[in-house]
């Protein structure tokens, strides 16, 4: 059986754009939609064919736009709805898809629904949010805000204090708390319909789908996520019927649930399970999501939550543990491979960039892995040139420690790294100007740069159907190196990833019938076939190779 999904997703290579920081087309110091349009040629050259834009809607920006004041209006700082429609059209001409961010779990307190809901007199929006029935009522273990409205009650939040949770009801309402509505309460059903209409609005304008923020957070007191999953299945059924080409991508971080809930993809993230962390974590750091994990938004996968090893697999010292990663990954992969895809991102706007403690060669190895694994790969803007975490910045728009990985894209060595013509002090965030800061122009001109390697890899991924999201995956060795095969009906590829900076050699038994290897990408790994054995070795490490098996 294969995954039921729009054809385009099978060979999609996504690129995440944090709109404020990508390209400023009008010199006001902040990125915008016309700026993204201006860079479509660049993105096409890089070889990505799908974009995910972080929320670009009207918002007070207390959480980088994840606090929405109007779901159907582009934020003025980014442009207009017409600009976004133009972006959809220009992308379409290049065969590129654009997914938006659907923040279904909460709005901003500035949203008109919330303003109405906060009024003392009852109205059509009173139950759109979760309110206790008196300011003195206990919060029943939920994060609540008191004293912020004329309405007598406290409201539940999903993240920051200005992000009130929309009311999708409670899976198990406490009979003593009448304010906890059941999931089929008319107000909760109305909220679902509102979300469907928001999706329709953007899909009609040309969006290709949605990355769904905090997807498991919808229904409260839903320990096994049964009711939340039912809502997403309802959303997916609507899409399958009305927009069969549209995709739903979850920020759930637990594929065994999310893919059964109707999502086409789910991210392997630093929250939920430690699998992502054990691949890329560079330095011991506090998990950004500790707080959320504790409040139970993200599922933890039983026995796999103890990180056994303090080093990540892609740590150049080679002290990590690939087996530990694959223990979780293979379990999730086997359980979900007929339902949807697991996406491994290079990073995102909530994470530390992967470039810490890694040079271009180390990063090329990470990309070789991400772009040859099953599922749908995501490149975070700037990771293709190894952009760095800019440490010590004052938090911007609720970014806090995340601010370091949200700085402006570095296009060239000119003013503001080519991001904006504004004065440096007017920029959304300062540009990384420290010595050695990478930029696109320099890397494009250097044949062995990270940018050129990433470009080569995206091309390989898109030309070889054995590297499609759903093509077969077999792990042969989980060590230094990591060895696996990817195959389709037409071809079988062997992939070797060696992130440790040291000389190495290993031997594997070739799959039956294979007698020859033909390199797909140039590599300095030596690969010798002797009978049914393959001897692999490298002199300096941090290498990867892709071969066709014949
Ligand atoms: C997850 C988003 O990725 C993050 O940036 C945001 O702060 C929270 N959800 C709240 O919406």
CATH class of the largest domain: Alpha Beta
CATH superfamily of the largest domain: Glycosidases
Give the number of domains.
Answer: 3
Strand order of the largest sheet: 11-10-9-8-5-2-1-12
N- to C-terminal distance = 26 Å
Number of helices: 14
Query: Structural class, from helix and strand content?
Result: alpha/beta
Small-molecule binders here are: 1-deoxynojirimycin
Strand content: 15-25%
Overall description:
The chain is α/β, with parallel strands linked by helices. It has three domains: 7-104 and 189-399 and 434-463, TIM Barrel, CATH 3.20.20; 106-167, Oligo-1,6-glucosidase, Domain 2 (Oligo-1,6-glucosidase, domain 2, Alpha-Beta Complex); 473-549, Immunoglobulin-like (Sandwich). It is built from 14 helices and 20 strands. The chain has helices at residues 7-10, 33-38, 40-46, 81-93, 112-117, 186-205, 226-242, 255-258, 275-280, 290-295, 322-336, 360-370, 440-445, 450-463, and strands at 14-17, 50-53, 57-58, 70-74, 97-102, 144-145, 155-156, 209-212, 247-250, 265-267, 341-343, 378-380, 472-478, 482-487, 492-498, 504-509, 517-519, 526-530, 533-538, 543-549. It has an eight-stranded parallel sheet, with helices on one face. Strands 13-14-15-20-17 form a five-stranded antiparallel sheet. Strands 16-19-18 form a three-stranded antiparallel sheet, with no helix packed on it. Helix 12 (360-370) runs parallel beside helix 14 (450-463). The longest helix has 20 residues, at 186-205. The radius of gyration is 24 Å and the shape is globular. The two termini are 26 Å apart. Mean pLDDT is 93; it is low at 284-308. 1-deoxynojirimycin (NOJ) binds at residues 63-64, 66, 103, 159, 213-214, 251, 349-350.
